[in-house]
Amino acid sequence: MWRVTKNGKEKPAYKYFAVSDDGGLTFSKPEVFRYSDGSNFFSSSTFHRLYRSSKTGKLYWIGNIFPKHTTIPGHPRYPLIIAEIDEKTLGLKKETVTEIDTRHPGEGERLQLSKLLGQRKPGREESRDLSDTATRKRGRIIHRECVSLHSAVQIGSSP
Question: How far apart, in Å, are the Cα atoms of 78 and each of 45, 64, 127, 157?
Answer without folding.
Answer: 12, 6, 27, 26
